[in-house]
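Why does residue order matter? Because the sequence determines the fold. Keep that principle in mind as you read this record.
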Amino acid sequence: MVASSLASVVGSVLPPSVVALVAGARSLAFSGSRSVVPPVLAPVLSLVSPRAFVAVGCASGVDAAVRSGLEGACVFRAASFSASSHRNDGGWSARLALRSAAVVRAGSGRSPSLVVVFPSSVCPRGLAPSPVVSACFAGFGSGSWASAAFAAGLGVPLLVFAPLGVPAWGFAALGAGWFVLSPSPSLF
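Structure:
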């Protein structure tokens, strides 16, 4: 009874294609706002297979909710990365970028993989997909969208919850604020 109740709740909140993508992934990376945790995150986390590898960062907000909701998630901590930066922050911004890139790479390790991003703003002007970390994490002002651009640049399947819309990177709308960018038509 509990499983069928959960399935009906998840099905009423999430489009069927989102359910299929998340439930079918063997490897996932999560990224998102440090301040806003969307209510759709909990139903998404309930779909993650207990056998799936999950990568997430060390930040507050979405990262903290994923760490709390998925006990076995592999947590990448910015403090464990060594980097210098032209900014006057002791290299912290570079460490955050390297951490986020590592989360994306780790989450795309086993096929089928999926990077799931929950940005709280529109994509910054000028940010574009690239497989180069420094091109995506170049001070655009949104680490969530930078992670999405890096995943897209690497050709990793990307699922974004962005009720405010997505950039013109070739996303397909799934409904209810969800968008997918995939190099593989087999994900549909």
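The two ends are 29 Å apart (CA to CA).
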